[in-house]
Design brief:
199 residues; mainly alpha; 8 helices; 0% strand; globular
């Protein structure tokens, strides 16, 4: 394969990615929160970019709550642990509600954050148990360990993104304006957007 063929293939993948409204929304979200971080709530060109991008993203989010409602009523895989099911269903319900009424209650956000911490603890405990079992063997040669590690890393990334999204929601609703400043909201939103693009 020549360099030109590789470039064509990469451009074709980029075009496929950009043809999705959700992909464009994620890119706009990264721009919006990057601008929010840069402006730190102060009047400047970056703040104008933040506000304009926020308005532009509304088109991408029309009726998007339907996706979350569909995910809420879809069956979950049988091997999924209960705390993760509860966390996923809570997230889907909250995101659908947030997108529908454009609001989020602080108590619910705190409850979901507690679930996130509980799931992180469970994942850590599970991996330590498996590492003890493979104490004398090369754990990276064991397929079960690699599969669990991959699954654990995916869940960890999803939980980190969820935590960042909760912080962004708290910042946008100004529930803790002294702690979650526009710069913090912008930084967490930007990182969360990059994670979304990666996922």
């Amino acid at each position: 394969m020549t360099a030109l063929d590789a470039t064509r293939a990469e451009l074709a993948l980029l075009i496929l990615y950009l043809n999705k409204a959700e992909a464009r929304d994620k890119i706009c979200r990264a721009i919006q929160y990057g601008s929010k971080f840069h402006s730190n709530g102060e009047p400047c060109h970056a703040q104008n970019v933040d506000k304009t991008t926020s308005l532009a993203r509304k088109v991408f989010r029309l009726f998007k709550f339907v996706n979350d409602l569909h995910a809420l009523i879809s069956p979950v895989p049988q091997a999924t642990p209960f705390p993760l099911i509860l966390l996923g269903e809570s997230k889907n319900a909250l995101v659908a509600l947030f997108k529908f009424v454009n609001d989020l209650h602080a108590l619910i956000a705190g409850w979901v954050l507690l679930l996130v911490l509980a799931e992180l603890h469970r994942l850590s405990k599970s991996m330590k148990k498996l590492e003890k079992q493979l104490k004398h063997a090369d754990k990276y040669e064991d397929e079960e360990y690699r599969a669990k590690l991959k699954k654990s890393n995916e869940r960890l990334l999803a939980l980190i993104k969820l935590s960042m999204d909760l912080t962004v929601a708290i910042g946008l609703l100004q529930l803790a304006p002294k702690r979650v400043t526009p710069r913090v909201t912008g930084a967490f939103g930007f990182i969360s957007s990059l994670i979304s693009c990666y996922q």
